[in-house]
């Protein structure tokens, strides 16, 4: 399986009118806390339908399903954001949705899922635990499972964010993307490189959940024995082959940030821009803020601010 720029363009047509074309905000008027004050744009997926970029992939997947598959009901496992995307898509289509969440999911996200009409179950400690249960229930009850990051139609949907970034900021030299399971960066990096081959794509993971950093270094999928981060949406123990392959092909570097560095970046986004973001959404800015990634002189950077939330406000 793979995903191409043609798949991303097709997904963009399918989801048009169902998701928001989110704004891109230049950070030039901020009180910059960034070393050397690089040119920086913020792609505000925290303003997306359902609160994160996940609505793109969920709606992309839903629009590929036949009526019989929808009628059986949708099911998935999520750290919160993918579940909200699927719940939003299911609500729009009048389709029943069941979401399995791990124990490290913020209660506010579980409550929000219920507001969208989803049936919510808690299972296990991390996403991988919840996902095994969701797969078992899907098999038992005949529900239609939508993978949060390894489904080609989901990846294509996430890639549509790069179409917008490079339409609004074609001078972007560096794209910074937080990594959880790898669905966002798989699609966004592939699409960005297809449109602008010389663009640099930097992935950012927590120090306590270096799932794809370690997999790229090993040249094969690595399953982490332990997760130690409060950024629960960036914390699966294992990615999948389709994501690793796309990341190996299109991502230039993966860097690691600490939780405290993400908290610092989240506080900056709140104070300077009025953006209440989840911890994972601050990771891309954190990499610049603490100098873990230093862009070339004069480079224009765009950071994907991937989701809203209050857990970054510690």
SS elements, strand count = 10
CATH architectural name of the largest domain? 3-Layer(aba) Sandwich
The major β-sheet equals:
6 strands, mixed
CATH class categorisation of the largest domain: Alpha Beta
How much is the radius of gyration in Å?
Answer: 18 Å
Order of helices and strands: HEEHHEHEHEHEHEHEHHEHHE
Helix- and strand-based class? alpha/beta
Strand order of the main beta sheet, please?
A: 1-2-10-7-8-9
Q: Cα distance, first to last residue?
A: 41 Å
Number of helices: 12
The domain tally reads 2
CATH topology term of the largest domain:
Rossmann fold
What fraction, in percent, of the residue positions are helical? 40-55%
Mean pLDDT: 94
Q: Report strand %.
A: 5-15%
pLDDT < 50 runs, ≥5 residues: none
Shape: globular
Q: In brief, what are we looking at here?
A:
The protein is an alpha/beta fold. It has twelve helices and ten strands. The protein folds into two domains: 202 residues, Rossmann fold; 92 residues, Rossmann fold (3-Layer(aba) Sandwich), CATH 3.40.50.
Overview of this protein structure:
The protein is an alpha/beta fold and about 325 residues long. The protein folds into two domains: about 5-50 and about 150-305, 3-Layer(aba) Sandwich (Rossmann fold), CATH 3.40.50.1100; about 55-145, Rossmann fold, CATH 3.40.50.1100. The protein is about 40% helix and about 15% strand. It has twelve helices and ten strands. The chain has helices at about 5-15, 55-60, 65-70, 80-95, 105-115, 125-140, 150-170, 185-195, 210-220, 240-250, 260-275, 285-290; strands at about 25, 40-45, 75, 95-100, 120, 145, 175-180, 200-205, 255, 300-305. The protein has a six-stranded mixed beta sheet, sandwiched between helices. It is globular, with a radius of gyration of 18 Å. The relative contact order is 0.17. The model has no long low-confidence stretch (mean pLDDT about 95).
